Amino acid sequence: MDGVWVGTWRPHLPLGLISSQFPSPGPKYAIPGTTGHRAHNPTKRRAPAYTIRWAKPPAPESCAPGPYYVQPSMTRTGKYAAPAQTICGLPKIKIEATPGPSDYSTEKANRHVHKRPPEQPMTFRHKHMDHNQTPGPAAYTLPRLVGPNTACTRAAPCYSMAGRSHHSTFDEDLAKTPGPAAFLKVGLETYKNRAPTHTI
Questions:
Q1: pLDDT averaged per 10 residues in sequence order, the chain, 200 residues
Q2: Taken in order 68, 74, 79, 85, is the CA torsion positive or negative?
Q3: Which of 19, 141, 173, 192 has a Cα at 20 to 30 A from 132?
Q4: What backbone torsions phi and psi does residue 107 show, to the nearest 5 degrees?
C-alpha cells in the first residue's frame, strides 16, 4: 500500500477487524444461531433432529442379477392358488366286513351306567394261584419283648448274677503283691516345676 510516510510508520492493511469501520456502536460478535443442528448455540436447548437417508448404493463387488419380474400370485407366505376342483375317476374303495348292530352286547354296560348294589362273583381260582405258595404264620420270627435287647419296646434296667471275684478276698495271699520298691522311681520334674540346671 502506497502512502505518505509518517515518521517511521508506513500505511498498511489492518491485521484484524477495526470496530470504527462498522456502523454499529459496539464490536462485532459472532453469536451462533439457535436453528439447525450444526453450529448450534451451546447455551440453548437443541431439539432432536432426524435425517432422511437416501437409498444405499449396491456394493461394487455384488454380482447379483438385476431387477426381475415377480408374479402377482407370489405372496409373503408363498404362492397363492385359488381353490379348484379336478375331474378324475373314483378312487378304489376296499370293502371290508364291518360289524352290525347285533354283534354288540350292551347288557354288560348297564352295570356301569345304572346304580346297583355290590355283588361278589363266584369263580374258580386262577391256575397261576396254585404256584404262589405264601409263607404261613409260623414262618415269621417276632422280635423279643423281654430283656435288654428289645427292638420295639422300652427295656427296664436289668442286673445279672455272676460268681464272686477272687480279687481282695479273705483267702488271697497278700505277700505275693508287689511292694513299693517294685515300681520305678518317677522324677520330680515330671509332676513338679523343674529347677534351673547348669552345665559345664
A1: 66 73 64 82 84 75 67 85 81 82 80 79 70 76 78 77 74 76 84 84
A2: negative
A3: 141
A4: -70, -35
Strands (E) across 97-172 are located at: none
Q: Are 32 and 40 in contact (CB under 8 A)?
A: yes
The predicted structure's pLDDT at residue 141? 82
All 3 cell numbers of residue 136?
404261613
Q: Cβ-count burial of 40 within 10 angstroms (0-12 exposed, 13-18 middle, 19+ buried)?
A: middle
Buried b (16+ CB within 10 A) or exposed e, 46-84: eeeeeeeeeeeeeeeeeeeeeeeeeeeeeeeeeeeeeee
Q: Residue 191: what pLDDT?
A: 85
Q: Which three cell numbers stand for residue 173?
A: 495271699
DSSP 45-76: --------PPPPPPPTT----------TTEET
Residue whose C-alpha cell is 470504527: 20
* CA–CA distance, 187 with 194 (Å, rounded to integer): 10
Residue 62 has a pLDDT of 56
